[in-house]
Amino acid sequence: MTQETKLENLRTEKERFVAFSFAAADLLIELDAHGKICYISGAAKGLVGLDTSDLKQEKFINLVASKDRRVVEYVLESMKEGDRITPVAAQMDKTGVSVVVGACKLPRTHGHIFLALNVSGSTAVRSIMEHRDGDTGLLDRNDFLKLADEQMKLTAETGQKVELTLLHLNGLASMEDRIDESEMEEFLEQVGTILRRYSIGGDSAGRLDSDKYGVVHSPSIDGKLLEEKISELSKKSDPKSELDISHNSLELEKNEMSANNATQALMYVINRFVSSETETFDIKSLSDGMENRLETTMNRMLALKSVFQNYKFNLVYQPIVQIGDGEVHHYEALSRFKDGESPYETVVFAEETGIIHDLDLAVAKKAKDKLTEYQKRGDILPKLAINISGLSLESDSFVDSLLALYEDDTEIRENISLEITETARVGDLDRAERVLQTIRSNGMEISLDDMGAGSSSFQYIRALTVDYIKIDGTYIKEVQTNKKDAAILKSMSRLCQELDIGTIAEMVETKEQLHILKVLGVNYGQGWYFGKPQKDIETKRKSRGISMNIKRKGFATSWS
């Protein structure tokens, strides 16, 4: 082979390499050993805001937005010869454009690093503008859970293998007490940098709680590595550090789990991990088998969905009476399950796993069936209040199904009211107000459950137009001995009177409580003093008017 042929082959290989690179990237950059740009080609102006001619000898890190600069810098500085990094999401400083940065450090290139920048709509890049934890720069809990949800769907569609690692930094609070504020800020920033560095796309890590973190990463990254990196960092920041770091990793794939339930099961397990304050459900117990917990959670979800959808539960009815005259105003329909299932725990589980709308719709159907039964007997229909979670109201399909359920019978619809529970789960109050007014325009009344003295209660009363509010029973219990509770009840009663909203006091158990509620101007009461939940409701037959053309024995009528 002649020298000219060798050169021609070399040029061909170089052109092929460049073509492959441009097929995968919008901008190619070569950095020298000092991190300065020595070669650049591609859409520089659009991505970084400067022409290629202005970028020579510019430090690449200065082109990156400040919030991502530390992560990119950490990645580039930690690269060894022969390394190729997992692409990292970053935002460009001048343009605000979000890109994915790939990098490799080839042998025999004098310490040069080769970058490929690509504009992408991937999950990692989309998350760049979401809500973040101020201390670490990581995604906050809600957005991290959304990201994990998307990754679960992606693995199901593409077969891609990714893992989720949960970390618990036990002792973080005592470390914060021991070192300077600035040192603690630096430590938390570096924790965020490390977790992002090893995450998918460089932005698939979140702070789930003050000392609990989550990272979505490739299977090539061992969760133990994250534990060791943070442990080393803690000892540098605090030589006396007793930070106990533990982790547990799980492969994010649905396997045999239903596509509709696997993500919800994962979210439930993560939320239990985050909310745990005892050793009964911590990272160590997770390590006993997160897969088993996921499977157990999913199986319970499927079993409960079957119970809800096949109406294999009962309703009981507790009276709500008018405090003025003691007459029953309406009944609250409450769910009761077989096999000793706690109604409260079951409802909470359904809310936390996202299957509460199945229960809410099933209760609505059973309540309708009960009223239909009375209707066919010719009885006066009692008014029933059914519980609807704020989470269910967030679903357009649920609201449509609820309205469709009652649209065929005006009498039944007007004897059903909705009691909105878990109002804190309502994210968009403007939308919720529109939904509630649509429901009210169809003849159903609305009440808000568990209102108290908190600012959120007044926020909901201000934002949502409703017919009743139910006052948290803890205030009723203490009303005789606690002047503050009495004052709160009095002010809330007056406010609701001015807004033309009825007030319902829960957990009324004594005559003395009833007397105070009457003095304070509360309209309605519910509790054992008035009656426990009962299996059925005593109803009265509708009065029948006498028709002038009723056919009696021996009485003839004629149309002639």
How would you describe this protein?
- With 560 residues, the chain is of the alpha/beta class.
- Helix content is 44%, strand content 19%.
- It is built from 22 helices and 17 strands.
- It has an eight-stranded mixed β-barrel with strand order 10-11-12-13-14-15-16-17, surrounded by four helices.
- Strand 10 and strand 11 form a beta hairpin.
- The longest helix is centred in the first third of the chain and has 22 residues, at 3-24.
- The chain is elongated.
- Residues 121-129, 255-259 and 546-560 have low confidence and may be disordered.
Explain briefly what this protein structure is.
The chain is an alpha/beta fold and 560 residues long. The protein is built from 22 helices and 17 strands.
